[in-house]
Amino acid sequence: xxxxxxxxxxxxxxxxxxxxxxxxxxxxxxxxxxxxxxxxxxxxxxxxxxxxxxxxxxxxxxxxxxxxxxxxxxxxxxxxxxxxxxxxxxxxxxxxxxxxxxxxxxxxxxxxxxxxxxxxxxxxxxxxxxxxxxxxxxxxxxxxxxxxxxxxxxxxxxxxxxxxxxxxxxxxxxxxxxxxxxxxxxxxxxxx
Length: 192
Known about the structure:
Blueprint: H1 2-9, H2 12-38, H3 43-53, H4 58-62, H5 74-87, H6 92-111, H7 114-118, E1 121-122, E2 127-128, H8 136-163, H9 167-181, H10 184-190
Antiparallel strand pairs: 1-2
Helix pairs in contact: 1-2, 1-8, 2-3, 2-5, 2-6, 2-8, 5-6, 8-9
């Protein structure tokens, strides 16, 4: 909801930052669910779960000391996507490449970059649109991005339902994702 409100208001960079966070969460949930479905977690999945539920090292946070251990990276967690794709007959390299490219695009908003900054530049007035992007077409593009990210979230939750053997919830989530993907805006955007 927050991302859609930001898109509607024209705060497209902020919207993209929220979508990046949501995307990372989807990668993490899907990776953990994949390990559960296989019945065997990878080293990266085990470390991720341990790190997620561990207490922060307060001394390290309050001082200038470096963290004692690096966090499990997105690349390691995305391997679960590749295994799921392969298990369902999809091209794992294509899926991995797609997830990587989408993540990279959203990284530019979180970490700042020329492209994301210039997205808000109004060339005619030679100023930045600090009260939100004025272009309705751009806002519509971000609404579509929110809708697409919602499908990712629904699918991640569906994996959780499958792990929990909740067939009713899994079916309901699958139907919701199909309905969202069949929306006229989604169909037009995909060129289908």
